Amino acid sequence: MKIKYWFLRGLFFLFFIFAVASMQSIAYAQKLSWLPPIQSNPTHIYITIDANKSIINFQKNSDPIESRPVNKQLIVTFAENEDAIIHLPTTGPLVMPGILVRFGHNIRVIGGHMIATATGDPNGIRGLLRFTGTTGSSFVEGVILDCNERLGLDGLLVGGVAGQTFFPDVYLQNSIIKGVYSLSTSALHSDGFQYYGATGVTRMDKVSVRSKYQGLFLDPQHDIHSIDLRRVDVDYIDPPNGEGYIFYLRQLETGRRPLVFMDEVYVGRRDTQFGGEWEKYSVYPPSMLTFGGIRIGDSITFPSFTEVVGEVKLAPPPNGPFVNESDVGVGYVSPGYVGLP
């Protein structure tokens, strides 16, 4: 009996150790890859909306509250070396045309939910959330950006400005971009994510994008240092009526060849009149081009670009989208980080 007791006790101990290790492994897997870059005495911007959802209240630190019409784009301007944290409403989604963040150093937006009310305009509102001229980094985490199927409106836009000598790093983690919409390739081209200027390092981890046109537009039309994609899934809102390339890597003739690293990147397929061939109509460069991606099974690689490491896989990920709406947006709590800024 004594031997049996110690044997059972040993089995229980081993089971306990295994259970704890498994829980730690799950918790580690849920953590994000990159910490927010360090800030120095950041300015806090608080955005709230009134009960009638007609007025936006905007406050900088403890300054008096400013009120602005909800139907206008909110433009927030910082000094070149100013760090800032932008706090989106904590009581519900921010329903408005969009936010333009101008300049600043290290800027953070962590948590919150934005829903678009305006279409895209090349001479006005281009994106639901846009950073331009930031000198250090733009850091977005735990956010839902809903373009609400407003024609030609991009989700997240980033980039430096002409004449700028420091270009921002970009972080997008644990976030959803959805409702990206264009009628056809002849209309305004909408993207879930797009560059609008030179950029440093782009880092994405746990990102889900849903678009009717393009999801990730990574073509280096501007100088880009490098791109690191981890646990990213992009797919069509409406596959039978999808347009454009949901994953757009690059053209051959740009002359710019930034490093690209991809790990667990899943790309959806649109069901076209051509049969929905994934490698021809969903991923750019398509397989019919001499420098196009090469499909083997359910994966596409880009051998024409030796600086691109990794592959894209046919969506959806085995366990569903990497980000669930219930885990991000209003009331967001970060799962923590495993890496360095």
Short description:
The protein is mainly β and 341 residues long. The chain contains two helices and 23 strands. The longest helix has 29 residues.
Describe the structure.
By secondary structure, the protein is mainly beta. It is 10% helix and 40% strand. It has one domain. The strands form two sheets. It has a 15-stranded mixed sheet that branches. The protein has an eight-stranded parallel sheet with strand order 4-7-9-11-13-15-17-19. The longest helix is centred in the N-terminal third of the chain and has 29 residues. 45% of the residues are buried.
- How much helix, percentage-wise, in residues? under 10%
What is the total tally of β strands? Answer: 23
Radius of gyration over C-alpha positions, nearest whole angstrom: 22 Å
Structural class: mainly beta
Strand content bin: 35-45%
How would you state the average pLDDT, rounded?
Answer: 88
Number of helices: 2
- Sheet with the most strands, sense and barrel status: 15 strands, mixed
Low-pLDDT parts are 10-28
Q: How many domain regions?
A: 1
CA-to-CA gap between the ends? 56 Å
> Which of globular, elongated, flat, extended, rod-shaped describes the shape?
globular
H-E string: HEEEEEEEEEEEEEEEEEEHEEEEE
